[in-house]
Amino acid sequence: MTEINAPVPAALSGLDAVDWSALTHAYGPADDVPGLLRVLCSPDGEQRDQALDALYGNIFHQGSRYPATAAAVPFLVRMAADPALPGRAVCLELLAALAIGYDETHLPGGVAITEWRAAVEEIHARDPEAIRAEYDAWVEAAADERERRLREFRRDLYDHDRQLEAMAAELGAYDAVRAGVPALLPLLGDADPAVRAGTAYVLAWFPEAAGESLPRLLATLDEEREPVVLATALVTTGLLGDDGTGPELALRLRPFLTAGEPLVRWAAATALARLGGRGVEAAVTADVLAELVAGAEQPGPGEPRLPFHERDPRGYSAASLTLLADRYPREALDAVTEGLAATTGPASFPVATAALRLAFGDPRPEGPGAFTELTEAQRRLVRVLAGLDENTWRWANFSDIVRSWGLPVPRDELRAYAGLPEE
Questions:
Q1: Regions of the chain where pLDDT drops below 50
Q2: Half-sphere exposure in the Cβ direction for 308 (13 Å, CA)
Q3: pLDDT for the residue 51
Q4: How far apart (Å, rounded) are the C-alpha atoms in residues 199 and 233?
């Protein structure tokens, strides 16, 4: 990949005025970022893809953000808004990633920005020695030697100054994208459907801007004919609704449950489940449940997939069903358990988490007790977990999920607990 020598687009005005070498990303000084942004404006699609991969690797390294991340955001916003440039939709998806990291960590509820800001303030106000003492007490409270070693490892990794720097970089990137929302809103009317969908996706993560975004999104619901754009706008509308706007939004969204496009129906159900999770009782009905059950059990092969939840409709459906647990506890658990049985590998992680939460409530390291004391639905879930293949169980992430609810791991111990034969 070579840096392009074409005239600098207006979107990159001021790029060289930034002291990139004084900023850092995952690999040190960020003096490669301006070149990558220039290449991202190239008419050469292959070079743009390489530049995009590099940016995902340095200013968004495995979800981490850095001082250089926020500095790159205004240029990406202007690039997305410039109709003369190619590849604008990928700029929008990158902006969302820079703002929030991996979106499944914020779903199904949306970005809890008030709590996020409060957590940053709390860490700033805390005495590092007090935090260290809490870690020491946590290590001492470990149930066994293995757990103690794990806790010691996490304690020893903690560096207060680095934690503050990381939190400042993450919130700084978020606020930089938030500042670009006014420039992005007009793109809901862009000629390119991919840009309209990408814009709706970015807007989903800024509840503080809902007063600006929701009127535009509601207009999109009235005017949009492209199913993917409409579905994205529906999910975003649900994520931005709060206790004050929820009942009105539920009335606006309910007609989409009878749309001809399955993707649109699923999106409406996802939005209504989230509003129901915010206490809007009228938002959740049996047809909402039915759409999410279908999504959790058997997401349609080959269907267009929205960017939400890493494009994993089964995982997002399972997470949304946890919001219906108080109304439809058995139906939600059965659907997620059924969906879990059809998963493998990392796709199993969010579904297993949702299923365990539906079956046992919040994580409980002390465990649920003897297998014979569980309900039939709980026993079925445990058997499904124990029956998942080695491609799933080889991931430490999956074992950690199961262990969080106090169930035996590894797989052979869970099979023994459930009374299943050895393999």
A1: none
A2: 36
A3: 97
A4: 9
Locate 386 and state its tokens: 């124990």
Q: Cα separations (Å) of 214 from 94, 187, 210, 239, 397?
A: 22, 14, 5, 10, 37
| Structure confidence at residue 246 (pLDDT) | 87
Q: CB neighbours of 385 closer than 8 A, spacing ≥ 6? A: 340, 352, 355, 402, 407, 414
| Residue 373, burial from CB neighbour count under 10 angstroms (0-12, 13-18, 19+) | exposed
Distance CA 225, CA 234 (A): 13
277 belongs to a structural domain: no
User: Is residue 377 assigned to a domain?
Assistant: yes
Does residue 220 contact residue 229 with C-beta atoms inside 8 Å? yes
Q: Which of 338, 336, 299 is nearest to 319 (CA)?
A: 336
Q: How many Cβ atoms sit within 10 Å of the Cβ of residue 372?
A: 7
| DSSP per position, 282-311 | GG--HHHHHHHHHHHH-PPTT----SHHHH
Structure tokens of 376?
């039939």
Residue 152 included in any domain: yes
Last residue of a domain, one of 146, 165, 184: 165
pLDDT value for 146: 82
Integer-rounded Cα Rg, in Å, for the chain is 23
Q: How many domains does the chain have?
A: 2
Give yes or no for a contact between 355 and 333, defined as CB atoms under 8 angstroms apart. Answer: yes
Q: Domain of residue 417: give its range.
A: 328-423
pTM of the model: 0.93
User: Do residues 405 and 380 lie in contact, with contact meaning Cβ atoms separated by under 8 Å?
Assistant: no
- Distance from C-alpha of 261 to C-alpha of 256, rounded to nearest angstrom: 9
Structure tokens of 208? 């503080």
Distance CA 113, CA 242 (A): 13
pLDDT of residue 7: 63
